[in-house]
Model the fold of this input.
Amino acid sequence: MPWRVCLRVARGSLAAWLLVGLWVWALGGLCGPGAAAPGAEGSPLPCQAPQQWEGRQVLYLQSSGRNSRSLISYDGLNQRIRVLDERKALIPCKRFFEYILLYKDRVMFQIEQATKQCSKITLQDPWDPLDIPQNSTFEDQYSIGGPQEQIMVQEWSNRKSARSYETWIGIYTLKDCYPVQETFTKNYSVILSTRFFDIHLGIKDPSVFTPPSTCQTAQPERMSEDCSL
Done:
């Protein structure tokens, strides 16, 4: 979603946007979701996540050991996502980017926030919405928080009945099916975890999906986050 890429990692292609910036190109080789039948033996069915919303996310990538904060605009109806790196602290030699992913056009724009320099990169993976796949396995239902301040959530995974572990876990709120957290694992280790918060329904300004004029002369190579390169 920069955000689930056998975009999502371990689920399909949505990692292509959740991983954007740090990891959109790094994790395309993991397996798809399990085939457990939802609703079996009275277990819940996957809820339908909102189609258009804006919020914030914190992404942890195991290979770098970093937490990356960003604003996100998600438009499932038009298959497009915008991610904007947040400047929460002064990080030496760190470049901040904006990412616009237009899946119907199969293109991603990477824009440096300071200079508006732009890269235009072809999206190889198909659109995969940020939601709970219908063939996911229900794992648990529980509350987050404590007395007088609780939110009920459900936990889903791509675990198959023939194996005892999963490579994707998604946590969504029970009432409105808002994404709370997605975690991807490989060889029993967490490789990627994303937390979502401050979610508001709708897209306040649809123009965030329009790349700046500098992208008319965009370069085809991805820009590095390291300002020394």
Notes: The mean pLDDT is 83. The CA atoms of residues 177 and 190 lie 24 Å apart. The first helix runs from residue 15 to 18. The chain is about 0% helix and 40% strand.
